[in-house]
Amino acid sequence: MTTVQGHCDPAFARVREVFEENFAEGRELGAAVAVYAGDRKVVDLWGGVADRRTGREWLPDTPCFGFSCTKAVTAAAALLLAERGLYELDGPVTDWWPEFGAAGKEGTTAEHLLTHQAGLPAFARPVSAEEAADPVALADELAAQEPEWTPGETHGYHALTYGWLAGEIVRRHSGRTVGAFVRDEFAAGLDLWVGAPDDVIDRAAKLSAARRVQGGADSTETADSAKTADSARTADSPRVLASDLLNRLVAAYTDPQSTMNRSTGNPHPGKGGYNNPVVLRAGWPSAGMLATAPALAGFYRDLVTGRILRPETLREAIRPRVAGPDRTMLIDSSFGLGFMRPAQTFFTPKAGRDSAFGHTGAGGSIGLGDPDAGLAFAYLPNMMSDMAAGDLRAYRLLDAAYASVS
Question: Less Cβ crowding at N or C end of the chain, within 10 Å?
Answer without folding.
Answer: N
